[in-house]
Glutamine synthetase
Amino acid sequence: MATSASSKLNKAVKQQYMDLPQGDMVQAMYIWIDGSGEGLRCKTRTLDFEPKTIEDLPEWNFDGSSTYQSEGSNSDMFLIPAAMFRDPFRKDPNKLVLCEVLKYNRKPAETNLRKTCKQIMSMVENNHPWFGMEQEYTLLGTDSHPFGWPSNGFPGPQGPYYCGVGADKAYGRDIVEAHYRACLYAGVKICGTNAEVMPAQWEFQVGPCEGINMGDHLWIARFILHRVCEDFGVIVSFDPKPISGNWNGAGCHTNFSTKGMREDGGLKIIEEAIERLAKRHRYHIRAYDPKGGLDNARRLTGYHETSSIDEFSAGVANRGASIRIPRSVGQDKKGYFEDRRPSANCDPYIVTEALVRTCLLKEEGEEPTDYSK
C-alpha cells in the first residue's frame, strides 16, 4: 500500500513540540477554495488575542498566480474571513478560518460562490431553508490505487461492504473515526457516517444546517478530511466515478426542506417544489458539479443507484430517481426531499443556492436570475 513519506515521520517527536506552551498567542489557519473550484489551500498567521467572532479576524492576502486564480503580474488576492471553527489539529485556542476570496478589485473570485449564495439565502431567511448533505468519498493510496485493494487486481464484487464490519469489508475505518471526532471538536455539524457500497468508499453526513451554514460546514469538513488523510499518508478523492466499471460512483445527496414543508400538510409544498425542479433539470445538472455536468455524466448513468443525467425522475423511496421522497415523509405528509443528483465534488454553495432559486424564488429557465440589478 503506497503511503506518503510525510506519514512515516516520527509523530512522537512532533508531539514534543506541539506540547510546548504557546503563551497568549493564537494560530489562525486561513482556508480558501482555489481556482479549480475543488481544491483547498491554507496558510497560518499568529494573532496576539483569541478571536471570539468572525469580525475579530483581520483580512489577509495571498499569491493567486500560484492557486490558478490570477496572473503573476497582478497576483494579490484578498482573504475575507467568513466562518470560524476550533482547530482539532493544534487544539484550543487555535482556529480554522474559512475565507471568501476577492480579486484585486474586491470583486468575488470566479470560484467564490459563497457571496452569491449568501445573498440568495438572505432573501428567503423567513422560510428557514434546512439542508443536510451526504458526502461520499474514496480513499486512495499515493499511487491513486483504492486503499486496501489488491495491487494487481480487484476486491470481491459489491455487496458485503455497505455498512460492513470486519477487516475484509471495511477499508480505512481509522481515518473515518479520526475525521468524525475532529469534526465534532471543530464544531462542524457532522451527524453520521457509514461505509459505502464500493470498498474504500465512505460517507459522512453534515446537517441539518440553515442557509449559508451548509456550505461553510461541508467545506470545513472536507478540509479536515484532507488533513486527517495527510496524517495517515493517504489521499481522499471526491471524484464522482473514481473507478470505472461495475462499481458505485460517489455523490453528495442533498436533503432539503423549508418551514412550510416541515409543517402539517407540507407534502403538498414538497410536490410543488419537485414540479418546479422537473422543469429546470438542465440548470441543476450544470450547477451540480464543477465542470458543468461533465463529471456527473460519468456517474449519472441510470445504474449503480443513480438516475440518468438526461432525464428527471422522482419517487417515494426510489434510489434510482433524481429526487427521492423518503417513505416516512410520504406517510407523515410532511418533511423533506432528497436531491440525488449532486456529485461528490460539487460546490455546496451553488447546490443549495440552486435549490432555493428554483423551489423558493420560483425561478424558471436555463439561467439564474440576477437580483443585483
About this structure: The first helix runs from residue 11 to 18. The longest strand covers residues 76-86.
